Amino acid sequence: MAANSVNLEDVTLPDLMTELLRRMKCSTKPDKRLVLIGPPGCGKGTQSPVIKDEYCLCHLATGDMLRASVAAKTPLGVKAKEAMDKGELVSDEIVVGIIDEALKKPSCQKGFILDGFPRTVAQAQKLDEMLETRGVKVDKVLNFAINDSILEERITGRWIHPASGRTYHTKYAPPKVPGIDDVTGEPLIQRKDDTPSVLKSRLEAFHRQTEPVIDYYSKKSIVANLPAEKRPEEVTKEVKKVLS
């Protein structure tokens, strides 16, 4: 038995039943392979878990997967670490290979949400080639369209509780006590990416590299433009409309 596998005898009956019911519900859902595209702070991170649960998809965040592969010393992880140690970018082939590996998991049976990849047209083409070998393709690209000025207000007001990942916003979702997590009372931090100067360079990179990816998928008529400046629950409604 693999080191990280679970002995079912140790799982409580309610947990087992919950998972069983979830899988039965999932078995009736249509397969979906989705790519989420949008600049930093557009709300992809808020919508991903909602979409994942609603449609029983696996959420593939390439940064997390890359770190996990390196930690697990998988063949691709070893190659990725070699590149990182030299200060090089991990090649598109390796990243697509790691996505390919992940798609073998049972949790990805109904499809996936790709978030943070592809960032370039070359990556989109490599992703398409890999999916083609599996006899599938990207079904829908959700483009979280939003004005840069709205993003600046959103992002620079963001604060995070590092241990749990809970996020707050000085204007839209402030903690009960400024700078303090509501649940644990621990201090909140601002990520170094969430400062105006870093945001400016990230947005420039997004417009330069990733906007052409939207054009690439638009030619395949699979892009849905979402009004990402709206409140999260309104964006969720739009997402459900697009995916129904």
UniProtKB/TrEMBL annotation:
Residue intervals of the Adenylate kinase active site lid domain: 158-193
Alphabetized GO MF terms: AMP kinase activity; ATP binding
Catalyzed chemical reaction(s): AMP + ATP = 2 ADP
Enzyme class: transferase
EC nos: 2.7.4.3
Keyword terms, alphabetized: Kinase, Nucleotide-binding, Transferase
Subunit structure: Monomer.
Function description: Catalyzes the reversible transfer of the terminal phosphate group between ATP and AMP. Plays an important role in cellular energy homeostasis and in adenine nucleotide metabolism.
Family per similarity comment: Belongs to the adenylate kinase family.
Protein name per the record: adenylate kinase
